[in-house]
């Protein structure tokens, strides 16, 4: 049997033995100091090597060592360059492609803007030319006396092959009335058939219900201008024994008797004779007329209002 005081003695012995704690990792302060020392040594060594390299002649030991090291590392540099070249090329291609796309988009926007400016300038130039023609006609010798010109922009064009009317931006407030003659800077366009406060509807010469008394300035032959095939005009009601020549100019005949005033004053240019034919079955000459006014592309016109 164990003596009764054995446990007490073991406890005393155990308490008297002190075990030291193991410290497997260095302290933070020691690690920081070590890093600083190593960094200082490397910096000092680099400065020393630079100083020696600059101060020694080109054929010295340091330069020779540099040449040996450079020669030894050159294969690795070449290999690294060859390995990196595809990646550099790919990056350059992607970068140049992105730059080209950005430049292309910028140029496309500039082209669109310049095209819009060009079309706008061209449209304004065309309108300016039309107004200049109207001004020349108004100041010319063939302008009918007793009338004033109300210039207007064309705001609506024929909507189909069977519609021969346009709308202009002037109306009752400017003195426009039904049957007011309408001209362009080249010649007769038609007459007003519907009028509103600030706009009017003009029926063109090529309408099937349009008739204009006309005179041949060369031969003095009179006839009736009406629509022909398509958008052409013909001089109708001309007897076969009368003389009409190709190229003759036709103008409005005007009023012959004050008791029966004509819709159009005398002397408004209409067109020129393009061909003259005779048919055994027809009662009159077949006279084709080309209108002076380009009825398919009118931008500006003038309504002739009596003073």
Overall CATH architecture of the domain at 212-291: Beta Barrel
Overall geometric form = rod-shaped
Oligomeric form: single chain
Name the CATH homologous superfamily of the domain at 212-291.
Answer: Rod shape-determining protein MreC, domain 2
CATH uppermost class of the domain at 212-291: Mainly Beta
- Compute the number of strand runs: 12
> What's the end-to-end separation, in Å?
154 Å
Based on CA atoms alone, the radius of gyration comes out at 51 Å
Q: Which fold name fills CATH's third level, the topology of the domain at 212-291?
A: Thrombin, subunit H
What is the mean predicted local confidence, pLDDT?
82
Report the order of strands and helices: HHHEEEEEEEEEEEE
Q: Main beta sheet, described?
A: 6 strands, antiparallel, barrel
Structural class: alpha+beta
**DSSP helix fraction:** 25-40%
The order of strands across the largest sheet is: 1-2-5-4-3-12
Total number of helical segments?
3
What would you note in describing this structure?
It is built from three helices and twelve strands. The model has no long low-confidence stretch (mean pLDDT 82). The strands form two sheets. Strands 1-2-5-4-3-12 form a six-stranded antiparallel beta barrel. It has a domain at 212-291: Beta Barrel (Thrombin, subunit H). The chain is of the alpha+beta class. 38% of the residues lie in helices and 23% in strands.
């Amino acid at each position: 049997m164990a003596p009764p005081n054995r446990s007490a003695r073991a406890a005393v012995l155990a308490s008297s033995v002190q075990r030291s704690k193991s410290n497997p990792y260095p302290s933070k302060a020691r690690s920081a100091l070590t890093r600083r020392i190593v960094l200082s040594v490397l910096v000092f060594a680099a400065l020393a090597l630079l100083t020696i390299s600059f101060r020694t002649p080109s054929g010295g030991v340091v330069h020779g060592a540099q040449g040996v090291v450079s020669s030894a590392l050159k294969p690795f540099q070449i290999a690294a360059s060859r390995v990196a070249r595809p990646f550099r090329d790919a990056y350059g291609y992607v970068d140049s492609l992105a730059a080209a796309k950005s430049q292309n988009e910028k140029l496309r926007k500039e082209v669109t803007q310049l095209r819009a400016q060009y079309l706008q300038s061209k449209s304004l130039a065309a309108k300016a030319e039309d107004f200049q023609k109207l001004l020349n006609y108004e100041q010319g010798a063939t302008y009918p006396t007793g009338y004033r010109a109300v210039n207007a922009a064309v705001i609506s064009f024929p909507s189909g092959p069977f519609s021969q009317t346009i709308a202009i931006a002037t109306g009752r407030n400017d003195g426009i009335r039904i049957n007011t003659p309408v001209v362009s800077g080249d010649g007769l366009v038609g007459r007003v058939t519907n009028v509103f406060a600030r706009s009017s509807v003009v029926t063109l010469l090529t309408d099937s219900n349009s008739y204009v008394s006309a005179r041949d300035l060369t031969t003095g032959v009179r006839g009736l201008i009406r629509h022909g095939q398509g958008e052409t005009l013909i001089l109708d009601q001309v007897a076969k024994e009368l003389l009409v020549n190709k190229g003759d100019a036709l103008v409005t005949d005007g009023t012959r008797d004050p008791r029966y005033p004509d819709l159009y004053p005398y002397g408004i240019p209409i067109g020129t004779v393009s061909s003259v034919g005779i048919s055994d079955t027809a009662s009159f000459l077949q006279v084709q007329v080309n209108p002076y006014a380009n009825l398919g592309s009118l931008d500006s016109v003038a309504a002739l209002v009596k003073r």
